[in-house]
Amino acid sequence: MTRTGYKMGDMALTLHGKELVPGDAAPDFTLVKQDLSPLHLADLGDKVKILVAVPSVDTSVCELETIRFNDEAGKLGDKVVVLTVSVDLPFAQQRFCAAKGIENAIVASDYAHRAFGEAYGVLIDELMLLNRSIFVLDGKNQITYVEYVKQNTEHPNYDAALDAAKKLLK
Prior knowledge:
Elements: E1 2-8, E2 11-16, E3 30-32, E4 38-40, E5 48-53, H1 60-76, E6 80-86, H2 90-100, E7 106-109, H3 115-119, E8 123-124, E9 133-137, E10 143-148, H4 158-169
Parallel strand pairs: 5-6, 6-7
Antiparallel strand pairs: 1-2, 2-8, 3-4, 5-9, 9-10
């Protein structure tokens, strides 16, 4: 299944995978952590989850987005986990996190299998990168909020995603 209508600058993009909507069960995935061990959805426990897909932490918008969600994760407390996913190699993610002080959020890679990208409908066919997107999950891994950003050079709606997560904490 593919979807069109997405862009990176002037380049038209096609997303591979099913478009997820609130109410869907969050699909499992296998990512690679910075220590090269696997990370699965179940590893995040029964916390509220903010899953953030970005094309690459080495771009300005992705960098700012990752820093912002790391800062917000520190404010939200231990009942929320923020996971940022890109296809950057784990070594590059590790250098990025060390340089930018990313300590409150998890940054993991989908480079090996593109399992997250395909399962969450964010894999860009033309580039094999992930489309900028946000998914908020409750403690039982039901999706309560989704944003697929149409133009990858633009920021997501931070406030809407954070509000969706905060509602689940009440």
